[in-house]
Amino acid sequence: MKKSPLKQIQNQDQAKQKQHQEEGMMKAGMSLLEENQRRKSWEKTQLDVKAIEPDSMILRKEIDKELRNSLKHTGALKGNFGLPAAYTRAYQYQVKLYQELTYEALINNDQQQYPTLKARITALAGTVQAVKDKISEFIEDHFGGDKSRLSRGVSQQQISFATQMYCDNPDLVITYASPADILLNQTDYYGNLVKADQQYAIVKDFYDNPVLINVLDGNKDCFILNTIKCTEYMQFVNEIGKEAKEAAKQKTARKMPFERINYKMDSFFGYNDGTATPEQDQLVLMFAHDDGVLQDHNTFKRHLYEHPNLKNLNYGGFDFENMEAISDLGPGDKNYWHDNIDDFDRLKMLDAICNQDNPFFDIKLLRTLVKEYYTIIAENAWWKSMGYDQGRLDLMRLKQKELAKQRLKIKKAEASAEKRESFLFDGKVQKTDAKSKEEPKAQGLGKDILNEENPIK
């Protein structure tokens, strides 16, 4: 008896379905193992990052953590708080001083001193309320909704100062600028000249050095996660993807909207020509550190730590020479710390790129890197929606220096075919070498670096 043709087709379909299921299961399992290993590596990296911090910084952060935890167990989170003891002592001293000056003016019948003293007493009362407002702001930033609302891009040093100043810190000292301080042009931590009758806190920095900060500057440059900008960026990326998907469906050739993407990035993060606003600087830091931007626990900072080859950064350049003192010579180094970039060098270098408390930090460099990173995310959305191979694009980016030579040949061949003596390539004018009789053909160039036989595949 012959087997039924229909039965054979059904068996073949079932076999194919089983094969597809097996392949899908294998692929999903490999992806699961890969992500699990990536997660473990990231946890280890974060511990390694902590390990490069000096002991004084680690101790200071632990003390600050305890100060904030103590604040949580009081009525402060519900608005029931008074001034820390250090402020009360300072106010008592100042009030007593004003009383003595008032009594002296009364005995001497000094009518000119009365308005001055009255103004100083009024200003003191205003400072009391202003400090209470700053403490309230601190509580809202760190405990609003039972957790911190601050962006992870905020300076950790600044958070430490605010904690020491606005929690019940037994080591806090509050003082006033003396006439001698003013005559000597004494400055505070931020380089501002101290002013008469203004209160200043003496706190410790991460290196255990005492510093002077105006009592109203504890929350300086602290900012919360801007969810509106996060949503705006993701909507823009989705919009780019939808347009590309529609073009692919209609099988129409459409150029990637570079101009729109560039404009969006510039309007978000600003320029490095000095016109960037403080708000744009904050967005740079926020988009570098906060996983709430992409809402998938990936950040620019994590991407940078996981980058396979920091000497061939996709996202901008890194000036190794200007960071000569970032680290001492290590194993494999001959003349410079970056001769051989080991794990310790990587941690130090990436801390300099991302951490605004690092003495080598440069907001301009970070702006360049962040802009290019989020530009590429938008470009990837368009590329993927067009149905193109994402792996090929990633490879081209990783090997962009090598491919630049191939692109130059292509552009040169095109310019020569049009009988032009020069052409523009990557912002520079290049010659076509008109004397040459043979020009390379544009067709097929660039494939040799991406073909299957190439070891970089």
Give the count of structural domains. Answer: 4
Tell me the structural class. Answer: mainly alpha
Largest sheet: 3 strands, antiparallel
Overall 3D shape: elongated
Which ranges are low-confidence, i.e. pLDDT below 50, for 5 or more consecutive residues?
452-457
Order of helices and strands: HHHHHEHEEHHHHHHHHEE
Helices, by number, come to 14
Helix content: 40-55%
What is the alpha-carbon Rg in Å?
31 Å
Please provide the count of β strands.
5
Note the gap between the termini.
Answer: 52 Å
Query: How large is the share of residues in beta strands?
Result: 5-15%
Q: What is the topology, as strand order, of the major beta sheet?
A: 1-2-3
**Overall average residue pLDDT:** 81
Structural features, described:
The chain has 457 residues and is mostly helical. It has four domains: 7-51; 61-214, no CATH class; 227-398, no CATH class; 400-449, no CATH class. Helices cover 55% and strands 5% of the residues. The protein has 14 helices and five strands. The protein has helices at 5-51, 55-72, 85-107, 113-143, 156-166, 179-183, 227-249, 258-269, 278-289, 300-305, 343-354, 363-385, 390-398, 400-417, and strands at residues 173-176, 199-204, 210-214, 422-425, 428-431. The strands form two sheets. It has a three-stranded antiparallel beta sheet with strand order 1-2-3. Strands 4-5 form a two-stranded antiparallel sheet. The two termini are 52 Å apart. 18% of the residues are buried.
